[in-house]
Design brief:
The chain has strands at about 25-35, 35-45. The chain is mainly beta and about 45 residues long.
Length: about 45
């Protein structure tokens, strides 16, 4: 289930803040697609 999707254009930012007010506690996977490939990170919501 996809909770959020966004496209960031322009210069590469140092950080991106994403608000997920509807996300329930649990383990999620964050998929980051860049021109260099795909990165997957675990995200824990408490």
């Amino acid at each position: 289930k996809r909770l959020h999707q966004t496209r960031i254009s322009g210069p590469r930012p140092e950080a991106v803040q994403i608000k997920l007010p509807t996300a329930k506690a649990g383990l999620y996977f964050l998929h980051i697609q860049t021109e260099r490939g795909l990165v997957t990170k675990k995200l824990t919501v408490l």
